[in-house]
Amino acid sequence: MRKRGCFKCHAVDRTKVGPAYREVAAKYRGIPDADERLRLHLTTAPRIRIEGHEEEHVSLAGIPDADLRAVVSWILSR
Ligand code: HEC
Asked: How would you label 32-58 residue by residue, b for 16+ Cβ within 10 Å and e otherwise?
């Protein structure tokens, strides 16, 4: 995640350009397909709003599945 610049826009416990990982974990707590939804977010480069303009979210498409799973479960366990 450090290599892909995730921490430029996200921190664990405070909002930066993007939501804090702890907030993301809280939002998905109790949602049965949380894993699937985060995998989608992280592999399909959805359009996001950043400071008044739109751009594509960084995509992790193509990284090994085990790594993607590790990222998703790390975020969801914040
Ligand atoms: C250029 C800034 C930027 C970078 C780099 C970035 N993000 Fe984001 N991310 C955002 C913004 C802004 C949002 C909020 C999007 C929205 O809610 O529309 C977001 C949302 C998210 C979400 C929440 C999705 C949801 O459904 O609520 C997750 C998880 C996430 N990012 C993970 C990552 C990971 C992992 C990386 C590194 C691979 C990363 N982000 C890199 C800006 C960034």
From this structure: eebeeebbebbeeeeeeeeeeeeeebb
